[in-house]
């Protein structure tokens, strides 16, 4: 049940960000201060501060199909800990959550000042121009998508930024996209993405010889594999792979096939519910839908902007292939309000 657990933890962080009087421990404060001052190093050795990283974080946007407007839920997931939060004490979790809250607050302050810079809508069908219309920071819930609501009701349930498609009314079949700044669009060349339909009768499995190679690499028997998306024809292919159950545990992994061969993500685990189904998501027997909202390349490392879509949440993150490993970074996890 780890996917649900971490979604709940992310929501706990986001809803606690307004507490300005929380006691700061030396470890969490120092680690964030050091990160802000020294930054992090990318695969090329370049140093990037957290504030600089904010500029490369796109906004997840969903359309109002009856108007030219797109809504970006206000949400942010800080860089996670290497530790399993479920195994930590309450005190240890509180320290990590304070660090998360500090980073999230800094992002929100940055976003308030830079919201008008997001002018390029990047979808699987190409880039479109948008302009900022309004913001709803003061009401609603963070990390929530409430597209079923209208007018004042939507404002009460969803914190958002609203943008207008300059080309006219939406309705081209694109339900999810990312919004980026003009500078990001200029330095990150879009890549062609083709998502597969989520129809169980038409699912495309991984080639048999690749399945055999994967089983040797991980030491587990593949239960099912399905193609999620292709990028630049067959240059990159992304699959969700689930493995045979072991006791009360289920296993899954995101796997990419490149021109060089298999690239593996991290093994995910969850428990089986009372009906014997994996608890990847509420009311979903199968692993949640994974698709790509967009993909782009800055000349150093491609970004594959994925959407993890379950009945109760939509997660925006990026896959990157670094040192022959499929790295995953979550940028926002949003609850779906019905």
Outline the structure in words:
There is one protein chain. The protein is of the alpha+beta class and 338 residues long. 24% of the residues lie in helices and 38% in strands. The chain contains seven helices and 20 strands. The chain has helices at 2-15, 26-38, 50-54, 90-114, 151-157, 182-187, 208-218; strands spanning 40-41, 47-48, 59-63, 69-73, 118-123, 126-136, 144-145, 160-165, 177-181, 189-190, 193-195, 222-231, 236-246, 249-258, 261-264, 268-271, 289-297, 302-310, 313-322, 325-336. The strands form four sheets. Strands 3-4-8-6-5-9 form a six-stranded antiparallel β-barrel. A six-stranded mixed sheet has the order 7-20-19-18-17-10. Helix 2 (26-38) packs parallel to helix 4 (90-114). It starts with a helix and ends with a strand.
Characterize this entry briefly:
The N terminus is likely disordered. Helix 2 runs parallel beside helix 4.
Topology record:
Layout lengths: L1 H14 L10 H13 L1 E2 L5 E2 L1 H5 L4 E5 L5 E5 L16 H25 L3 E6 L2 E11 L7 E2 L5 H7 L2 E6 L11 E5 H6 L1 E2 L2 E3 L12 H11 L3 E10 L4 E11 L2 E10 L2 E4 L3 E4 L17 E9 L4 E9 L2 E10 L2 E12 L2
Parallel strand pairs: 7-20
Antiparallel strand pairs: 1-2, 3-4, 3-9, 4-8, 5-6, 5-9, 6-8, 10-17, 11-12, 12-13, 13-14, 14-15, 14-16, 17-18, 18-19, 19-20
Helix pairs in contact: 2-4
């Amino acid at each position: 049940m780890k996917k649900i657990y971490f979604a709940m933890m992310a929501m706990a962080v986001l809803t606690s960000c307004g507490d300005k009087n929380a006691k700061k421990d030396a470890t969490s404060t120092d680690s964030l201060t050091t990160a802000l001052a020294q930054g992090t190093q990318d695969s090329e050795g370049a140093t990037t501060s957290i504030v600089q990283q904010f500029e490369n974080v796109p906004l997840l946007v969903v359309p109002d199909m009856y108007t030219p407007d797109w809504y970006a839920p206000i949400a942010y997931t800080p860089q996670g800990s290497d530790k399993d939060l479920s195994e930590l004490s309450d005190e240890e979790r509180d320290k990590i959550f304070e660090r998360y809250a500090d980073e999230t607050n800094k992002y929100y302050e940055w976003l308030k000042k830079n919201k008008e810079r997001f002018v390029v809508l990047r979808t699987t069908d190409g880039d479109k121009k948008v302009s900022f219309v309004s913001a709803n920071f003061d009401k609603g819930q963070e990390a929530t998508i409430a597209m079923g609501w209208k007018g004042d009701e939507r404002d009460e349930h969803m914190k958002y930024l609203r943008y207008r498609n300059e080309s006219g009314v939406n309705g081209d079949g694109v339900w999810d996209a990312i919004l980026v700044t003009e500078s990001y669009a200029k330095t990150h060349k879009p890549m062609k993405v083709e998502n597969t339909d989520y129809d169980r009768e038409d699912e495309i499995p991984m080639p048999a010889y690749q399945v055999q190679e994967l089983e040797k690499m991980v030491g587990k028997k593949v239960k099912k594999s399905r193609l999620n998306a292709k990028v630049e024809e067959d240059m990159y292919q992304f699959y969700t792979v689930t493995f045979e159950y072991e006791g009360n545990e289920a296993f899954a992994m995101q796997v990419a096939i490149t021109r060089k061969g298999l690239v593996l993500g991290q093994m995910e685990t969850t428990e089986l519910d009372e009906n014997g189904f994996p608890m990847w998501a509420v009311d979903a027997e199968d692993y949640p839908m994974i698709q790509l909202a967009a993909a782009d390349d800055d000349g150093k490392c491609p970004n594959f902007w994925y959407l993890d879509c379950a009945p109760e949440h939509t997660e925006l993150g990026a896959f990157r292939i670094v040192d022959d490993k499929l790295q995953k970074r979550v940028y926002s996890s949003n609850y779906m309000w019905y």
